[in-house]
Sequence to fold (197 residues):
Amino acid sequence: MTILIFAIFAYLLGSVSSAIVVSKLLQLPDPRVEGSGNPGATNVLRLSGKLPAALTLFGDLAKGTIPVLIARMITDDLLVISAAALMSFLGHLYPVYFKFKGGKGVATALGAYLGLGLPVFVGVGGVWLVVALIWRYASLSAMVAMLLAPVFAWYFYQNSWLTAACILIFLFIVIRHRTNIQRLMAGEESKIRLNIG
Fold:
């Protein structure tokens, strides 16, 4: 029963699209129909600037972190905690409030890993940063970082449930980035701009 409660709570919280909420509150372009069409911080940055993007990023991180932290405060059962992490992530991808059309889930996954504790978060975030600085592709950075998340999870926690949740998150990340993969292979993927104005 506990796992069901946390799974539902995490999914409903994850379904709150920070990009859509921020854009509506600030009367900015709808990220679902403008730019890349992806309701995430990167598209909000391109459309509306740094502050709305930062608010979106914070919201996406928070909705991944909060249910995991609450689960950890109530139970030591890593199955329950893993379910909270996975369901908040899936809520972002398939939000019930927005016709199940959500973002790519990288920030929410990072937030969930932050909720687990600093080791996995620092490991995943560090890999993202290194890959981004070397190759300057946000999509590639995300996929490589999420690929290594199960390795970090197993190394620090040695728990099958948590590792399995990280593997599922990685697989969904790849699925959501399939158009990015096509552009990377064609040499057409946009690079991270280090001097965004």
Remarks:
- The chain has a mean pLDDT of 94.
